[in-house]
UniProtKB/TrEMBL annotation:
It comes from Faecalicatena contorta. Residues 280-479 form the HpaB/PvcC/4-BUDH C-terminal domain. It holds the Pfam family HpaB_N. The keyword Metal-binding does not apply. The keyword Acetylation does not apply. Transmembrane segments: none annotated. Keywords: FAD, Flavoprotein, Isomerase, Oxidoreductase. This is Vinylacetyl-CoA delta-isomerase /4-hydroxybutyryl-CoA dehydratase. InterPro entries: Acyl-CoA_Oxase/DH_mid-dom_sf (IPR046373), AcylCo_DH-like_C (IPR036250), AcylCoA_DH/oxidase_NM_dom_sf (IPR009100), HpaB/PvcC/4-BUDH (IPR004925), HpaB/PvcC/4-BUDH_C (IPR024719), HpaB/PvcC/4-BUDH_N (IPR024674). Residues 3-273 form the HpaB/PvcC/4-BUDH N-terminal domain. One of its GO terms (molecular function) is oxidoreductase activity, acting on the CH-CH group of donors.
C-alpha cells in the first residue's frame, strides 16, 4: 500500500490536463486552490498506515489475498459494508471535507457484479477485463474516480434523441482493438487527484441508445481527456498571501470538475460494457445504491465536526448552559445520528450477489440518501443560529494582521475572557467554511444533488417499497376477503 508521500509523488508523474480560473495548471499537486483537496485524499493513505485504524482502513483482497486499502476493496460480507460506513465517518471527522475516493470504490463494486451477470447473458468477457484491471488497482493502491453524470442536455429527451448527440457520453467509433468515445462527465469529485477513472452510463437505456450504453476505464491523463476545475464559494481566499484564518479549514477540502472526452481511444481490455443496453440500468442502480449508502458515513463525519464547532462557538460566546443552546445541540446530534443509522441499516441488511460481492439493501440506501437531502440543511441552520451573525460580518485576516486595526478587533470581537479573539474567529470561520464556504459544496449542496438528486431516490423508494405486499398485510388484518 502507498504512503501519503508515495501517493503524491505518483500524481506528479501524471500528465493531467487541468484548467482553473481560465488558465492551464502546470502542477495540480502544488496549486494552492487544489492542494487542500489533495490533502484530503492523502489522508486515506495516511490513516491506512496507522495501526489504530488498521481494521477500518485495510482488508484482505478476495482477488489477490494481499492486504489492501479498503477503498480498493470488493465487499465480501455485510461486515465489510458496515466498516465502509464507519471508515467514511472517521475520514469525515479527520478532514471535515470530501475525501474523494468513495465514488471509485462504489463504481468498482457495481461494475464487478454487473459485468458478471452481463457475461452470463451475452457471453461477453467484461468480468475478466474488470478483474484484471482491478487487481492492478489494488496492487498499486491507486485512486480511481467514478464518472457517471452526463450533462444530459434536454432532460425530456433520451440520449439518442438529443439535438447535440454529445450531451451523453457515447461511442463514436468501434474498432478491432477498441472504441473511441466522445462527450463529458460533470461534477467529477476528486478527478484531479485521481490516477484512473471508471466511466459508466448515467441512465437506463433503450435499444436505440446502444452507443451510450458504455462503461470503461482509462488513465486520468489519457490523450483527449482534460478537466475544467469547478468554482466554489470563497475558493480564491486560498490565493491570499499568508491565507490562514479566513479559510476556516486551511488543510483540507474537496473539488469537482467538468471532464471532457474529446475522441478518446479505449482499448478492448478496458471495456466493461459496450452496447448492452439491458444492463445499463442495473449498473446505474447498483452504483447509485452503493453511493447513497456512502453518504450515511461521510456526511455524518463532517457533521460531527460542525456540531463540535457550534458547541465551541456557544462556549466562546459564554452561553453553553443556556437551555435553548443545549436543545439545539441535542437536535443536531439527533439528526446526525439518524443519518448514520440509515447508513448502518442498509449495510446490515445487505446481501450477496451472483459475482460474490455484497450489495446494500437498496430501499434503505435510498432512504438514507433521501434523509441526507434534508437533515444536513437543518444541522447547518442550527449551527448558523448558534454561531451568530459575526460569522459572516467579521473583518478579514488582512484587517486582523494590520497593526493599527488588530487591537480594536481583539478588543471588540472578544467573547469570554479566557479565549482569544483569534481562536473565536477561527471557529466561526470553520462554521462558515462548512455551511457557506468551500466545504459547503461537499456538505450541503452535495447532500442535495450527489448520488442522484432527491427525486431519484423517491423513484427508487417507490420501486422497492413492495406496496402490494403491504396491501395484503392490511387485508389480512382487516379481514378483507380475497377474490
Amino acid at each position: 500500500m502507498k504512503t501519503r508521500e508515495e501517493y503524491i509523488e505518483s500524481l506528479k508523474k501524471l500528465d493531467l490536463q487541468v484548467y482553473l480560473l481560465g488558465k492551464k495548471v502546470e502542477d495540480p499537486t502544488e496549486h494552492p486552490v487544489i492542494v487542500p483537496s489533495l490533502n484530503s485524499v492523502a489522508m486515506t493513505y495516511e490513516l491506512a498506515q496507522m495501526p489504530e485504524y488498521e481494521d477500518l482502513m485495510t482488508v484482505t483482497s478476495n482477488l489477490t489475498g494481499e492486504k489492501i486499502n479498503r477503498f480498493t476493496h470488493l465487499h465480501q460480507s455485510t461486515d465489510d459494508l458496515l466498516k465502509k460506513v464507519k471508515m467514511q465517518r472517521l475520514l469525515g471527522q479527520k478532514t471535515a471535507s470530501c475525501f474523494q475516493r468513495c465514488v471509485g470504490m462504489d463504481a468498482a463494486n457495481a461494475v464487478y457484479s454487473t459485468t458478471y451477470e452481463c457475461d452470463k447473458a451475452h457471453e461477453t468477457h467484461y468480468f475478466e477485463n474488470f478483474k484484471k484491471y482491478w487487481e492492478r488497482i489494488q496492487k498499486e493502491d491507486l485512486v480511481v474516480d467514478g464518472a457517471m453524470t452526463d450533462p444530459k442536455g434536454d432532460r425530456g429527451l433520451s440520449p439518442s434523441q438529443q439535438e447535440d448527440p454529445d450531451m451523453y457520453l457515447r461511442v463514436v467509433e468501434r474498432r478491432a482493438d477498441g472504441i473511441v468515445v466522445r462527450g463529458s462527465k460533470a461534477h467529477q469529485t476528486g478527478i484531479v487527484n485521481s490516477h484512473e477513472v471508471i466511466v459508466m452510463p448515467t441512465v437506463a437505456m433503450r435499444p436505440e441508445d446502444k452507443d451510450y450504453a458504455v462503461a470503461f476505464s482509462l488513465p486520468a491523463d489519457a490523450p483527449g481527456i482534460f478537466m475544467i476545475y469547478g468554482r466554489q464559494s470563497c475558493d480564491t481566499r486560498k490565493l491570499e498571501p499568508n491565507a490562514d484564518i479566513d479559510l476556516g479549514n486551511k488543510n483540507f477540502g474537496g473539488h469537482e470538475a467538468l471532464m471532457i472526452f474529446e475522441d478518446v481511444f479505449v482499448p478492448n481490455e478496458r471495456i466493461f460494457l459496450n452496447g448492452e443496453t439491458d444492463f445499463a440500468g442495473m449498473l446505474v442502480e447498483r452504483f447509485a445504491s452503493y453511493h447513497r449508502q456512502s453518504y450515511g458515513g461521510c456526511k455524518v463525519g463532517v457533521g460531527d465536526v460542525l456540531i463540535g464547532a457550534a458547541a465551541l462557538a456557544a462556549d466562546y460566546n459564554g452561553v453553553p448552559k443556556a437551555s435553548h443552546i443545549k436543545d439545539k445541540l441535542i437536535e443536531m446530534n439527533h439528526l446526525n445520528e439518524s443519518l448514520y443509522s440509515c447508513g448502518i441499516a442498509c449495510s446490515c441488511e445487505g446481501c450477496q450477489l451472483e459475482a460474490g460481492n455484497y450489495y446494500v439493501d437498496a430501499l434503505l440506501a435510498n432512504v438514507c440518501k433521501q434523509n441526507i437531502t434534508r437533515l444536513p440543511y437543518e444541522i447547518t441552520r442550527l449551527a448558523e443560529d448558534i454561531a451568530g451573525g459575526l460569522m459572516v460580518t467579521m473583518p478579514s485576516q488582512r484587517d486582523y494582521d494590520n497593526e493599527k486595526l488588530k487591537p480594536y478587533i481583539d478588543k471588540y470581537l472578544k467573547g469570554i475572557a479566557d479565549v482569544s479573539t483569534e481562536d473565536r474567529m477561527r471557529i466561526l470561520r470553520l462554521i462558515e467554511n462548512i455551511t457557506l464556504g468551500t466545504a459547503a459544496v461537499g456538505y450541503r449542496t452535495e447532500s442535495m444533488h450527489g448520488a442522484g438528486s432527491p427525486q431519484a431516490q423517491r423513484i427508487m423508494i417507490g420501486r422497492q417499497a413492495n406496496m402490494e405486499h403491504k396491501k395484503e398485510l392490511a387485508k389480512t388484518i382487516a379481514g378483507v376477503k380475497k377474490k
